[in-house]
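Session log. Operator J.P. requested a structure for one protein chain; no other inputs attached. Running the standard single-chain path with token output.
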Amino acid sequence: MKARAKKAEATFYQLTCIGCGRRVREEESTTRCPHCQSPLDVRYDYGYIRSRLNRYSLRNSPIKALKYLDFYPIRDLDQVVSLDEGGTPLYRCRKLAEATGLSRLYIKNEGANPTGVFKDRGSLVEISKAKEQGAKAVCVASTGNMAASVAAYTSIAMMPCYVLVPEGTPIGKMAQALSYGARLLQVRGTYTDAARLTEELSRRHGFYLAGDYAFRVEGQKSQAFEIIEQLDWRAPAVVIIPMGYGTNLAALWKGFKEFYELGLTDRLPRLVGVQPEGCQPIVSAFNQGRDTIVPVAKPSTVASAVAAGDPLDGVKALAALRESGGCALALTDAEILEGQQHLARLESIFVEPAGAIPIAALTALLTTGRIRPEEVVVCLATGNGLKDPKSALKVLPSPASIEPTLQEVEKFLKLKLYEIRAAGAKNGDRTLLTEVPSKQAVADLVRQEFGVRLTPEYAQRVLSLVEDFVNKGKTVTKGDLQYILETVLRGLSSPDGVLKVEDFQVKTTLHGKAEAKVWVTFAGERLEGEAAGVGPVDAVINALKALVLQRGQVFFELADYQVQINTPGTHASVETTVVMTDAEQNRVVATGTSPDIIVASVRAFVEGYNLLWARQRRT
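Structure written below.
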């Protein structure tokens, strides 16, 4: 049986350097050419594949990646490692097509793969090859998606996996990799730094080096096979693909060409490669007519999955774009996030930012005539939106918190708090206020910028926070006003409360504890207190806790404390969130916002305490 499971001829494929043209043995390298360090490519004997191809089975068996084993460079089929990847849906998007002006638009949703991303197709081949070669361990550099995918496949293959990712990689992707048993390191640098270290790790310890290399291309080309099958064995006119390392675009082109050369389809599509403006080395090279890639030293984009500043397969992607008669363009982060929401709301498909890049490109491509309304267009959605949910929240309103009464629900409906953050995503750094306006001016400005009508009560609350921003010396941008508005409206029913902070003062040094004095009003009584802490926030909160416990007799614990900085720079707006519980198991979540992290924290604490106080008075 084992003999039959093997592809009898080892000569049905060979590794070839795309730079110097040398043939490379797998024992020498499966990543870069040992002579010139260029990427490698798998070249097949298509006559051999054609002679063995079961066309009836190919056309009639269910669609999934394992169906295409004849097209993969795997010698020993007993070593195949699979999680039943592929077979992802190709959705016809009628609402999105109508909104953008296309007649036939499709989304290939690769988020339906086992780990939620297209990388699983490449991991099928790559980890099967690692096992075939008897690797003792696998190492990989990743911006997150490949980390999760390789970790999953090495786990099922019972092989150790070492993963290096740039610091700040989305937590959802790291949680996946860690859950699969990966030994994960965050590198204080870029993906390029992580990739360099991983190559050194592989050389020193003899680990199998996984990543965007030749064997991964062979697995990922199955996306093209499936698209052709799902369109009744016809290739689309255009395929729009996000580009990071360039590997996936090159893989799709190879897949389309193989089916075309074997007579399984009668046409080839044009490819459109899209990158974010903050990391567009391949797009720049294509549009400037260059054959070489100029690396981006420090990529900066919300689409972290494609933040590859020095893409090894960029040369392959350039060749595929030109050979297909396609084009390339770059988009802003705001356009990408808008495309993500557009797809979710019109077609109920939630993808990560990188997967939304093709959607965001549609309008520009139609406007410039690079795609035509009557053409069949396929957008490749590369990963599930739950891979990076924090990015989606950048353009979504934070949910309001209400008391459990219908009156509070009606208040929420009346205020129409549905599109605040989406409205704030555009031109968020535009200055709106440099001095304190009137209450009516604030209400008018909120209505103009966010479409929200404020009641006099909420207009006054917004004005108070605006005043604090201005008094701190901070100009109020559209983004700042958005967060102020969210903070006020998120606590629709927050009580005025028993506790109010009049002022505080903090003294801190480099080596000693911080010391704080606070002046508060508690149930109408003016009080003063002081305390020390490990830092200024801790000292102020300790002083407040001492006062309220002395007077209020409300026991509570601070269960969680989070800080989010919403814009770059030391003058950025800060949002703090605290979770507080009491002895009666009441639990409240409160927020505060300010340009000052201490002020934001104090506001969150005070709101949380007042909510607990009110909750206890009702029980």
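Operator note: The CA atoms of residues 424 and 447 lie 12 Å apart.
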